[in-house]
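User: Assemble these into one structure.

Assistant: Restating your components, then the assembled model:
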Amino acid sequence: MRKLVTSVLAGIGLTLACGTSVYAQEKSLTIFWAEWDPANYLQELGNEYEKETGVKITVETTPWSDFQTKAFTEFNAHGDAYDLVVGDSQWLGAGSTGGHYVDLTDFFKKHDLGNVMAPATVKYYSEYPGNSGKYWAIPLEGDAVGWSYRKDWFEDPKEKEAFKAKYGYDLDVPKDFKALRDIAEFFYRPDQKKYGIAIYTDNSYDAMAMGFENALFSYGGDLGDYATYKVDGHINSEKAVAALDAYKELYKFTPPGWAKSFFVEDNQAITENLAAMSMNFFAFFPSLINPASNPNAKNTGFFANPPGPNGDQFAALGGQGISIISYSKKQEEATKFLEWFIKDETQKKWAALGGYTCSAAVLKSPEFQSATPYNKAFYETMFKVKDFWAVPEYAELLQQLNQRVYPYMIGGEGTAKETLDALATDWNATFKKYGRVQ
Amino acid sequence: MATTMITTLDRSSRAVARGLSDISIRNLFIIPTVLFLIVFNIFPLIYSLGYSFTDFRASTNAPANFVGLQNYRDLLNDPYVWSNFAITAKYVIISVAGQLLVGFGVAMLLNRDIPLKGLITTLLLLPMMLSMAVVGLFWKLLYDPSWGVINYALGLGNFEWLADPKMALYAVALTDIWMWSPFVMLLSLAGLSAVPKHLYEAAAIDRAGPFYTFFRITLPLVAPILMIAVIFRTMEAFKTFDLAYILTSQPTAELISIRLYKMAFQEWQTGRSCALAYIVLIMVLAITNIYVKYLNKVKER
C-alpha cells in the first residue's frame, strides 16, 4: 500500500514537473547575440516585453570572437537552444540557403517593412539573394562605421595656427579623405606619445574588410558586381587601388603596435589619449560619451566617414537583423515577439535605450537625431552604407581578403595593384568553385 | 536454486578474499576505458577520415558528396598551406632548440650544491604551471611597444615585437621557450642526477678537462632523457595553437594549427579541414617515428 501511494505521488509529481516545464518553455524565448552594449539594451527591452506579455526574454551573449563559431555550431547541430539570433549581415546567405533561418517574406510584406525600415537596412540585413524579394531577418541594430575625434586637440588655437601654416587650410572635421590623411599626419608625434589616427587592422574575421571598405567605397571603388559576381575590374580597379593606398597611408600615423586592432583598441585610442581620430562602429560610441569609461568624454566629437577624391561618400555597414531559427520549437512565440518589436512605440523605446533603430520614421525624428552627439552622423551614414558579400561562402572571401590585404598593409609586401589583382583572382576562383561564375 | 546461491557466494567470497578478480577488473576498468576510447577517440577519427574524402560543409544542410582525393590534392597544391607548414617547421626548430639549450643549461647550473636549490628549482618551474591563455595575454602586455616592460627594460623604444611581420614568430617562440624550458630542465636534472659520481671521479683522476668530461660522460648519459624531452616538445610545438593565436595575427606566424582552425570553424570547409588534419597527423607520426628510432639507437650505445 505504501509503495502504491509513493508511486502515485511520484507520478503526479512527474506530471506536474513536466507540465510546468512545458509551460515555462512556452513562455520564454532565448535570443542569441554577441557580447556588447546593444545586447544589454535588448535585454532591457525584453524585460518590457515580459511585463506586457509574461513571456520571458533571455538575451544570451558570447564574445564577438566566438559569435560566428558558436552560432553556426548550434545551427549545424540543428539545436533549439536559441529561438532567435541577431546574426551578422553577411550570414544571410549561409543562414537562408543552409535552412537555418525561417523565411520571413510573408511577415515582411504583411507589415510593409520594406517601407517602414530604412532602405539600406532592408537591403543588407534582411534580403537574400539581393533584389529577390525574399526576407530572412528583421532589421534590428542598425550600424555603420563612423569616426570619433579629440575636439580639444582640434580646437586648440596653437594647433589650428600650426595646421593652417603647414597645410594652408583650417583644422576642422575632415571634409574628405585628403584632409583625414593630413590631420592624421599633423598629430602624429611619437616623441610626445600622441598619434594621428586609429583604424581597423586586425586580420581575423571581418575587421580588415570593414576598415578598408570605408576607403574603398568612398573612393568610388567596389568589391564587385553583386548581381553577376564579376570581381575583376572592380576590386582591382584604379579607384580601388587608390583606396587601398590611401588606407595604407593612414596606417603610418597609427600608434605603435597597431597591427591587430579592432573596436576595443580603437575606442582605447580616444580614452587613453593616443590618437586624434579613431574609426569605429557607431554602436561602440556610447562608451565614448560616458565620463565613467572615457575621461575625455566632454572633448570627444564625432563625424561621418568623409567623401573620397571624387565626392563619393559611403561607409562600411555594421549591424544586424534578427532571425527566427528554423530549429526553434517556439517559432510562433518568436513571431509574436517580432510583431511587438517592429511597432513604432517599441522602436522608440529601443532607440531611447541606446539601440540603433532601423525604423525610418524614428531615424528621421529630431528627437532621435539630437539624443546623442553622434546620432545625426549615424542617421546621415545609414543612407550611405554598403556591405561585404553576403553569400554563403563569405567566410572564405573574408579569409582571402585578410591573406592578401594584411601583408601589404602591415608588412608592406608588394603593391596595392598586385595585392588587389591577386585578391580578384582568389575571389574569382572561389565564385567559380561555388558555381556563381563560369 | 540453493546450489546456485552457494556457488555464487563461493565465487564472490573467493574474489573478495584475493582482492578483485581479473573479470571484475576487466568489467570495471578495462571495458569502460575501451568503450570511452572508441566513442570519443576512435569513432571521431574514423568519421573525420570519411569526411576528408567529401566536400561536406558543416554550415549548410547539404549532403556530403564523395570527391575522392581532391581535398588532399588541393591542399598539397595550395601554396598557403605549404607556407603554413614552413612557418610551423621554423617555429618548432627555434622553439625546441631554444628550450633544449636554456633548459639543459639551467639544469647544469642547478646540478651542483647551491644554497636554496629546492626553492630556486620550484620557482623556475612556475611558467609551465600557468595556462597557455594566461601566458599569451601576459606576454602580449610585456611585448606592448607603448607600455610593455620588455622594451622599457631593454631600452628598445617603440620596437614592435608582435606587429612586425618579421619579428612575430620569434616573439611567439621566445614566449614558448620561457614557458617550456623548465620542463626540459626538470628532465635534464633527473638525467644529470642519475649519472654515476664515480665516472667524474675517474675522469678527475685521469685529469680530464671539463670539455672532455661534458662531451664524453655527461652528454652521452643524459642524451636518452633529452631525446624524450625533444620528442614531447616537438609534438607539442607542432600543434601549438593558443599561444600564437592570442599573441599575434601576423600571417608570418600563422601556424598550421591556426590555418586548420580557420578552415574548419571560420570558413566551415569541413571536408577539406578533415583532410588537412590527417596530413598534419601523418606528419607528426612520421617525425615522432624518426625520433623514436634515433632514441633507441642512443639507448643502445
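Chain A has two domains: 28-142+317-386, 145-316.
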